[in-house]
Amino acid sequence: MNTWHCKDFYDLSTEELYDILQLRTEIFVVEQNCVFQDIDGKDQDAYHLMCYDNETLIAYTRLLPAGKSYQECSIGRVVTKKTNRGTGIGKELMEISIEYCYRFFGRSPIRIGAQLYLEKFYSSFGFQKVSDIYMEDGIPHIEMVLSPA
């Protein structure tokens, strides 16, 4: 049974923060073989959406207000545990992330920096490509924006 939690940085327990950093490192650094500065000084200004399966963090996003990463509010550090991919958890993660952005930041556009190979996935939620392809940490990315209906 999956349980969802969305917390301000200062409401995270030490264990939750450890789980978040462990999952982000597992995927972004180890699996994607990418050396980058994950701890970027933005976590303190973010809401952290977490999905646990029992005691295991299986999905996560970081929700940032406008002006922190982009002019618009944003969803970032989108990650699902490798063993849980293909189960629909990523789709649920994005749907809930969008809902929380609207709840916390109002019904305004949401911008993401998406890995290029996930363009179709993000397009399925209404995100539209708004930039050329750019390289970030050796991985092709594009910026995409979701404008509320």
Structural write-up:
With 149 residues, this protein is an alpha+beta fold. The chain has a single domain (2-112), classed as Gcn5-related N-acetyltransferase (GNAT) (Aminopeptidase, 3-Layer(aba) Sandwich), CATH 3.40.630. The chain contains three helices and eight strands, in the order E-H-E-E-E-H-E-H-E-E-E. Strands 1, 2, 3, 4, 5, 6, 7 and 8 form an eight-stranded mixed sheet that branches. Strand 2 (47-53) and strand 3 (56-64) form a beta hairpin. The protein is globular, with a radius of gyration of 14 Å.
Rg result: 14 Å
Mean pLDDT: 96
Question: Regions with pLDDT < 50 over 5+ consecutive residues?
Answer: none
Question: What coarse outline follows from CA principal-axis ratios?
Answer: globular
**What about the largest sheet?**
8 strands, mixed
- The CATH superfamily is identified as Gcn5-related N-acetyltransferase (GNAT)
Element-level helix/strand string:
EHEEEHEHEEE
Query: Number of helical segments?
Result: 3
Q: How far from one another are the termini?
A: 32 Å
Which class of secondary structure composition applies to the elements? alpha+beta
Query: How many domains is the backbone divided into?
Result: 1
The CATH class, by name, is Alpha Beta
CATH level 3 topology: Aminopeptidase
| Beta-strand residue percentage | 25-35%
CATH architecture descriptor = 3-Layer(aba) Sandwich
* Secondary structure: helix percent: 25-40%
Give the total of beta strands: 8
